[in-house]
Design brief:
Strand content: under 5%
Number of domains: 2
Number of strands: 0
Largest sheet: none
Radius of gyration: 24 Å
Order of helices and strands: HHHHHHHHHHHHHH
CATH topology of the largest domain: MetI-like fold
Oligomer: single chain
Length: 317
């Protein structure tokens, strides 16, 4: 068990290095750069643009830029934003709570609703409710997140005036839990919709597999209560694949948060990333990528630990 965990931590660290190196290289090789924003000015000369590139360190070889950036990240110096010269760490840390608030709420909603629908579908396969759940899952998976978000805003914010059209809180109103939840419910439901469909399908498939096992039939033959059979025998053994699914879904969750935050003007890392793209703000873009990669890798690592905890076969390797 210890060797397994050590090996997974080492693999995660190597993966983080590879992700940052590839992202850094692709970002620097993309057309344009921070100086392209200044080049829009008709009074800007070529020597002025060269001086700007030198001040940003963009005139150095790519590998030297990466080593300097990585060294700064390890020592806590994430650089300064090209846009407003604020420390990148402060810019990102201001946005992390909003993103975590949105993604955790969406994931919790997806797990509770999706697992419930999946278990009910496995207990009553090929029933009318099972067919309706399958159709609903296919529809949810087919709807683009940005379009669904815009429709929610148009219907429930503009027409019915039930929810705010965007933002995290009412400006100038101060902190209020009810106000925060009022702003959170729409983007969280939009982000969690596709996840509900995925969780319900995976839960149904894994539950159908475990319900047909001999130990479940034996428990029923002994007269064990059906609720105990479903949750203590079948669901517990189906939990391993579901934990793995949670780790796999997190990259898609953060990707969906980027779109959802842009649609609902949610002040999280996704919206920060989109805004920074327009300014070619490399330090902020890399900082967001690193924080997101760390969250995704750490979540996958946690999922592996939990799977190893609930599955004795992995602990014995």
């Amino acid at each position: 068990m210890t060797n397994y965990l050590i090996r997974r931590v080492g693999q995660s660290a190597l993966l983080l290095v590879l992700v940052t190196a590839i992202a850094f290289g692709l970002m620097r090789l993309a057309p344009g750069g921070p100086e392209s924003v200044y080049a829009l000015s008709p009074t800007m000369r070529a020597e002025d643009l060269a001086r700007i590139r030198a001040s940003f360190g963009l005139d150095q070889p790519l590998h030297i830029q990466y080593v300097k950036w990585a060294t700064g990240m390890l020592t806590g110096d994430w650089g300064r934003s090209y846009r407003d010269s604020r420390p990148v760490r402060d810019v990102i840390l201001d946005r992390v709570p909003a993103t975590l608030e949105l993604t955790i709420t969406a994931l919790a909603f997806a797990i509770v609703v999706g697992v419930t629908i999946g278990v009910l579908g496995a207990l009553r396969p090929n029933s009318a409710s099972d067919y309706l759940a399958t159709i609903g899952a296919m529809v949810a998976l087919s709807i683009p997140t940005f379009w669904f978000g815009l429709m929610v805003i148009f219907i429930f914010a503009e027409k019915l005036d039930w929810i705010p059209s965007g933002g995290r809180e009412t400006l100038g109103a101060g902190f209020s839990l009810s106000d925060r939840l009022h702003h959170l419910v729409a983007p969280a439901l939009v982000l969690g919709l596709v996840l509900v469909a995925t969780w319900s399908r995976y839960t149904r498939a894994t539950m159908l597999e475990t319900i047909g096992q001999d130990y479940v039939r034996t428990a029923r033959a002994k007269g064990v209560a059906e609720r105990h059979v479903v949750w203590s025998h079948a669901f517990r053994n189906a939990l391993g694949p579901l934990l793995t699914l949670a780790g796999i879904q997190l990259p898609f969750l953060f990707g969906g948060a980027l779109v959802t935050e842009s649609v609902f003007t949610w002040p999280g890392m996704g919206r920060l990333f989109v805004d920074s793209l327009g300014y070619r703000d490399y330090p902020v873009l890399m900082g967001v990528l690193v924080v997101t990669a760390i969250l995704v890798i750490a979540s996958n690592l946690l999922a592996d630990f939990l799977v190893a905890f609930v599955d004795p076969r992995i602990r014995m390797r």
